[in-house]
Design a protein that fits this description.
- The protein contains two helices and three strands, in the order H-E-E-E-H.
- The protein is α+β, with helices and mostly antiparallel strands.
- It folds into two domains: 1-36; 53-105, OB fold (Dihydrolipoamide Acetyltransferase, E2P) (Beta Barrel), CATH 2.40.50.40.
- Strand 2 (72-77) and strand 3 (82-85) form a beta hairpin.
- The chain is elongated and about 70 Å long.
- The termini are far apart.
- This is C-X-C motif chemokine.
Length: 106
Amino acid sequence: MARAFSAAARAPRLLHAALLLLLLVAACQRAAGAPVVTELRCQCLQTVQGIHFKNIQSVKMTPPGPHCTQTQVIATLKNGQEACLNPEAPMVKKIIHKMLNKGSTN
């Protein structure tokens, strides 16, 4: 009789463990196909007016969106550092124009 009671007591625990495992597997499968969002806010909190063109390796522009209401211009420098540029500054507009022309000639 005691043996039947202990088996009956273990059945709900086993069922709960199995359901939990099933939920974890299902959640992991869904997350594997979901896009990863790296930032949910503006990356550029402060900007500089310009950097000399010869120090820039690449420029990335991020248009306004749900994560940030401002256009962001991030320059990767040849030394590996990143700098946020003011997209309204005349020097930055020239840099963007040069980078776009540089990419279209290749």
